[in-house]
Amino acid sequence: MNFKNRTLTQIADMICGNFLQTESYFRYRSSKFLTDFFYDCDTDYDHDGSTRGIWVTETLKKILQGPNSEPNMPADGFLKVIQVLMDRSDATNEDSSRKNALEMLNVELSREGFEAFYAEDRKCYLKHIASQKVLKPFANPHRPFSNVEAKKKETLVAYLNGCSEDELIEDILLPLLRQLGFYRITAAGHKDKALEYGKDIWMKYMLPTQHMLYFGIQVKKGKLDAAGMSKSDNANIGEIHNQVTMMLGHEIFDPEIGKKVLVDHAFIVAGGDITKAARNWLGGKLDASKRSQIMFMDREDILNLFIVNNLPLPEAALPEPAVSDDDDLPF
């Protein structure tokens, strides 16, 4: 992705601290501190002694087109640059909340269709204005959780234990899939089973080459097992296999292109665990050509992805506000 040269020049001046009117909003960085800044951004760019503003502008161009960049979205490296630039610890007495610095940054970012904001974790993120997608550096779902994240995970576990299958789809999966970059996410729902053809959700994902991949998802609230007769809260993997086969063989209509297309890949998503026996059974049923088409997500995968992407909990999962004794008093 490319930004306008004017935008990059202005952001470069913020990194350098060149603006006289922003000396109280952004730190002044000499050559050594510019190198330190980009090291903090997890890059290895060393300032070569040339004019600081020009060098930073050219460096930002390289970072924007770095790994994980998409045609319409900046690379992870640029998101890290914004986070380091807007670090709250760099605030000055005149702008302790960094409100003024944020406003100045957003004047430039709005030209490219983005907006910067501070999240609950006090870090600065970018949001794509048109789609409202929050852009974050790659979130590792297997990293250790903080105490706050661990408590959030416990709350989400309690919600999954009591929610319905439709609530799992609407409140958890759809927000998560949107945040992960999927397009045209369509939930079939459960009012008309005859129209599902073995899929609860279909969606598509744009590759950097502008090609589209289509995905279908079969969702089950409980655990998936390979037992001959499943319990009431569990589902048998054999039933899921039949539904996934229907999914891969049935066309879906994409209104954006006005054509029918086949599903390229299928997700099997379980609100509970997918047992090892179930995974092994399904693996034995699939030949080499279809094995790459079937992917799994169980409860732990959903929880980890939901937490590391910093998605808000469903309203139904939030604890009810405490009622004070005053509320019982008559008017």
Characterise the protein shown here:
- With 331 residues, this protein is of the alpha/beta class.
- It is built from eleven helices and twelve strands.
- It has helices at residues 5-16, 31-40, 52-64, 76-85, 99-109, 147-162, 165-179, 237-249, 276-285, 288-291, 299-308, and strands spanning 114-118, 124-128, 133-135, 183-187, 201-206, 212-220, 224-225, 235-236, 251-254, 259-262, 265-270, 294-297.
- β2 and β3 form a beta hairpin.
- α6 (147-162) packs across α11 (299-308).
- The longest helix has 16 residues, at 147-162.
- It comes from Pedobacter yonginense.
- This is Restriction endonuclease.
CATH class placement of the largest domain:
Alpha Beta
Q: What's the arrangement of strands in the largest beta sheet?
A: 4-5-6-11-12
Give the N-terminus to C-terminus distance in angstroms: 61 Å
Mean pLDDT: 82
* CATH fold title of the largest domain: Restriction Endonuclease
* Shape estimate: elongated
Give the topology string: H per helix, E per strand.
HHHHHEEEHHEEEEEHEEEHHEH
Estimated share of beta-strand residues: 15-25%
- Tell me the CATH architecture of the largest domain: 3-Layer(aba) Sandwich
Total E-strand runs: 12
Q: What is the gyration radius calculated from CA atoms?
A: 24 Å
The low-pLDDT segments are: 190-196
Main sheet overview: 5 strands, mixed
Helix content range: 25-40%
Number of helices: 11
